[in-house]
Each structure stands twice: as C-alpha cells, then as structure tokens.
Amino acid sequence: MRARLTARQRIGRTPADGVLLAAFLIDTTIAVVDAYTAAVLINLVVVGPLIAATRVGPRRTALISLYAVALGLYEGIPHHIFGTVDHLIRCTAIALTGGLAVWSSWLRQRSEVAQRHVALLAEAGAVLSASLDDAATTRNISNLVVRGLADCCAVHTFDRRGNVRHVAVAHGPHATQDLAEALRAWAAASHAEADAPTETLRAAIRPLVGDGEGDDGARADRPPAAVMVVPMTARGHTLGAITFVKTHARRPFDEGERQAATELASRCALALDNADQYQERSRVAGTLQDSLLPARLPRVPGYEIAARFHAADEVEVGGDFFDVFPTANGWAAVIGDVTGKGAAAAAITAMVRYTVRAIADSAPGPGAVMAALNNALLREHLDERFCTAMYAELRSSAGGTTVRVCNAGHPQALVVRADGRVELVAARGMALGIAADPPLGTEEIALAAGEKLVLYTDGVTEARLQAGMLGTSGLTDALATCGAEDAVRTGERVYRAAEPLSAASNDDMAVLVLRAAPADACGDEGLARTGASRRHGVLHLRLRGGPAAPSAARRALDALELPVLAPEDAHRASLLVSEIVSNTVRHADGDAADAIGFDADLTPETLAVEIRDEGTGFRLDPRRPPPDEASRRGLVLIDRLADRWGTRDEGRAVWFELDRRG
Asked: Given pLDDT bands bounded at 50, 70 and 90, which one contains residue 441?
C-alpha cells in the first residue's frame, strides 16, 4: 500500500488525474452509445487517447490507447462486423491513432522537461550572479535544485588543499530530514573511494533503511532510487561537487536531467572560480591599500585627529592617501591624491607618502616639502600621472594652536570655527609632477580650542547626489552643523553627506580632521575605514571615558555600515559593545580623562571587536551570579551573545567575535 500523499502532492497530481479520468469516461460513453445505436461509432474512441495526450504522461496515455483498442474490438460484436476487414481496418486506425497520441505525449513531456530545465538554468544564472559569497551561492543552488531536479541535494566546495570548505544541503517533500542529514555528513567527510562516490553515499544512507512498516503500512524509510554526483570543474580544477538524490517516489534520472545537472555544475564551477579570483584580488588590493594608509593615528599633543576613508573599489586600489607622523620639529599631516588606479597608482602613492616622511625632517617649511616632492616625481618620468597634495605642520604651545599648510593643486581645506562658521582656506597651488617650478599656496591658520581644520580629497566634493555633485558649498553646509562636534563625528558627518550615491562612485573618499583639543573636554579620535562592498571595515578609535562612552561606541559601530548586517547580528553587536564599554566606565569610576581604546574589524565572515582601558579589568567567570551579586551579570550576557570572547592584558582588554549570519 502506498504511503499517504501530502496535500501538496495531491494538489500537484489532480489535473493529470482528472484528464485521465475524463478520457476514460468519454471513451466508455462512446462505447455505450455505440452499442445501442445502429450507427457505427467505433472510430470515435480515439478521442480518449487524444485527450489524455494533452496532459497525461506517455505511460498512462498508452493505457487509455489500449483501452480504446479493446473497446473497438468489443464494439464489432453488437454491429456484427467482428473480424471483418472493415472491423480490422477500424481497429488498426484506432491503434495507430493511440500510438500517435502516446508519441505526442512523450514529445510534450520532453518539451516540458526541457523548458523546466532551461528555466532552472536561467534562474541559476541569476542566483550565481547575485553574490560573490560561495557559502551563500551553495545554499541558493541546493534550494533551487530540490524545486525541480531532485528530491535532495548537497553542494560542497573544496579549498585549495582539497578539503571540504562549505556544505549546503536542501531536501524536498519526498525526502526526509534524516536523509538530508546523512547526505550532509557524507558530503562533509573525506572519501577514500573517490572513484565510486555514489557507492559511498549509498553506504552512508543505508542505515536509514528500516524493515518496519509505517502507520499506513508503508516502509518508514527507503534508500534513494537514484544518486548522481557531478563534479564542479572549471579551468582544469575541481572546485567541488553537486550531489543529486531521487527517492522511489519519482523516476530515476533520465538523459535530459543528467545533461541539465552537468550544465548546472559547470555554471556553478565558473561562478565559484570567478568569485574565488575576485576575492583573491580583493585580498591583494586590501593588503596593498593597508600599506598606503596608517594602521592607526598617533596621539598628537594639543590635537584631536580623526580620519575617515572609504574605498570605492575593493579590487583596484585608488590613489587617495593621508598620513600623520612626527618630524624633527613637531608633527605633520599630509593628504593627497595620485591620478589613476591599480598597481601603478599604488606604487606612486607609496613613493609620495614615504618621500614626504623622509624630507619633512630637513625641509625648512611646508613649501619646501612640496617642492622637494615635486622634484622627486619629475625624476621618475611618470608621463601623464601627477599628484595633488596638501601638507600641514602642526604646532601647539601655551600661546595657542597653529597649522601651516601648503597646497599643491589639492581641494581647498575648510576651517570650522566653534560657533559653526566655516571658512575656506585661501591657499591654492598647482599639482605636482607636471612642471619644474609649480606655484604653491601657503597659509598659517590659528585654531582656538575646539576649532577644526578639515582636509579631504576630491572624492568627497565630487560625490554625486540626487541634485548633482556635493561640491564645496554642500560640504560647507554639512560642516556648519559640526561646530561643537569632536573630530570623529565631524569626519563621519562629512562622509554621510557624500554617501547617498557613493556606491555608484568610482573615486575613493578620504577625510582628515585636525581639531585643537580643548583642555577640559577632550573628544573622540581615531581612524575609520570601509570598503566599496560594505562587507569590510576597520575601526581604531580612542573614545573619551565617562557616561557618554557607551553611546559613542555604538555610534562608532555605525561607521562600519552596521545596518548592512543581519538584524540579529547588528542587535547583538550593539548590546555587547554597550555592556563592555559600560563595564569599562564603571571600573574607571567614570573618569572622562581616561581614553577607551575601541578596535573593530568587519569581514564577510565575522565582526571582531576589542575594547581596552586602564581599569581593574574583567574576571572571567561567566557563571550565573547569586541573586544578591550584580557585578557579574554583564559577563553572563556577553557569554550568551558572543560566539567567542575573552580578555587580554590581565583583563584590561576585552574582545569578542560574532559570526555573520546574513
């Protein structure tokens, strides 16, 4: 006795069963009418097979055709023509028409299957092009396969050493969860019998086969009726395999399905190989980009310094750069932009950055530094490549804070006064690497406590918004609201003003904010970097201690494009940061003079955060505390929310990691 069908299966079979029943009833009605009338209606029984051929498969169409032939033979008796030449001709015509109906049904079924396979491959193309994440791609493909090609599917990929990297399993209504789990375990294991993968799979699934009967008399579990393992091979390398399993509830794989499976595996292999090459190029570009920017910003006496950098392309390195470094006479900052992208632009950018560092100690002033850099670029014969830059000498004394700048063709800097007024620095000049003696603009700027000098690259002012480019006027309007903001929030405000359509931009954005530090109200400072795909980001910040630190830490996470995380991940991250920073403030007795170190690293796989302070630190005891003890309840929360966490430096540094789920 067959197992009870699910509602979905009954609904799926109703139209074909209805057509089969209609064909049977029509032929039966014709035979009954023919038996009681003088007219010979034998030939009309071909209507049944022809109707069946429109919706029913060839096997059941053949049954209706045989039934029609049997009716034709029987109807010769009441008309007294049984066995005559006329009767035989009529029955032969019925048989030939039935054969044509069966052939038509077979052709229709093949056409429908081919159309489904074409639709499946077309949908697979959209799925494969939707993401460069191979884990997400394997999940989507396995879900796609069980909708039209197999009852259960496993997609597993290999790393460069041949080990299984990702396994995704999906199953349809005809397969059980136990079968899917057995398939997952087989796909994740290392197989010694590589030449007979289907046999090893059958051996893995065989323990699921029981001899008992289900509630309705059917076997509880049955082995797969067909197993097909298709390797995913691209450019001579096997990147993984797709395993297709059909249960006894469906036909074994036919030639069309095998061809569709092979084509699907080939497309998956190319997509995975392209994604792997893209990720490798992205890693190389990221490493190269890291070498062109400071890993952290130093602490400069008398200043709060913050930088905001956004890479427009994670494969091609741009020419935007900035640096803050000590010199023989104090401290200096530089920001610039080399024309072009790629390795050639990166090489020039590295040369510019380290040339400025080398000559800053001996040069008598900012103008001399830019002149020496221009000579160095001309000696390299860079053809059409040139560089814009702005160099700043930072001075701080009891008499006040001053910045001497030299502009070599770079966008003009802006000064944000404490009352919100924004002033354009007049210094202008000519780009470097073009002429032997370019005109350079120099200016000295006095900054009162809390006032800021904002340096930026043209990727900010040329950012395209709905109403056009942001421009200097748009940037001025954004900065007019930042008079009382610290350096970090000012840099983030500039980025947000240029962000709305920055995803479509092909130019990097760099912002460097130099703020004269108030003696009694130090703010946050540090570096924030994000990538074009918004799947990578880095924070290295020093947050001001005190009650406002937890909210500042949560705002800092927004710089990592936290909203692009899955809602669950973003919520967990915010809760963990709030709890750890709050604990840090509590242990430091709320002293705002003690800075809190805040580092975060966002990758496609994880979010890693580390928070440092000089307090008494954590005690690693996340067991549930007694009801009368409140000091360790935060540790219980951290232990429950974080995928991994711990402490360093005798508990003064607390770190946690979250695995990204979206």
From this structure: very high
Give me the long-range contacts of 221-226 (CB less than 8 A, separation at least 24): 221/176, 221/178, 221/179, 222/247, 222/248, 224/151, 224/152, 224/179, 224/248, 225/249, 225/250, 225/251, 225/252, 226/252, 226/253
Single out the residue of 355, 436, 364 nearest to residue 389, CA to CA.
Answer: 355
DSSP string, 426-486: ------BSS-SS---EEEEEEE-TT-EEEEE-HHHHT-EETTEE-HHHHHHHHHTT-TT--
In this structure, are 136 and 78 located in the same domain?
A: no
- Cβ atoms of residues 510 and 456 within 8 Å: yes
Averaged pLDDT, 515-521:
78
State the Cα–Cα distance between residues 154 and 137, nearest whole angstrom: 12
Residue-number span of the structural domain to which 215 is assigned: 131-278
CATH code of 581's domain: 3.30.565.10
Answer yes or no: are the C-beta atoms of 544 and 595 closer than 8 Å. Answer: yes
Domain identity same for 346 and 482: yes
- How many structural domains is the chain composed of? 4
Token pair recorded at residue 133: 């994440």
Opening angle at CA 536, ends 532 and 538, nearest 5: 115
Pairing outcome for strands 303-310 and 525-530: parallel
The Cα–Cα gap between 332 and 314 comes to 29
> Could you tell me if residue 410 is inside a domain?
yes
Do residue 268 and residue 160 come from a single domain?
A: yes
Q: Supply the mean pLDDT for the chain.
A: 81
Asked if residue 526 belongs to a domain, the reply is: no
For residue 355, the one-letter residue type is: T
Burial track 79-104 (b if 16+ CB lie within 10 A, e otherwise): bebeeeeebeebbeebbebbeebbeb
Q: How far is CA 189 from the centre of its chain?
A: 27
Which tokens hold the place of 571?
């919520």
**pTM, to two decimals:** 0.69
Same domain? 238 vs 297: no
Per-residue DSSP letters for 201-237?
A: HHHHHGGG--SSB-TTSSBS----SEEEEEEEEETTE
How far, in Å, CA of 78 to CA of 42, rounded?
11
Checking if the pLDDT of 625 tops 70, the result is no
Residue 124 lies in a domain: no
Identify whether 106 is part of a domain.
yes
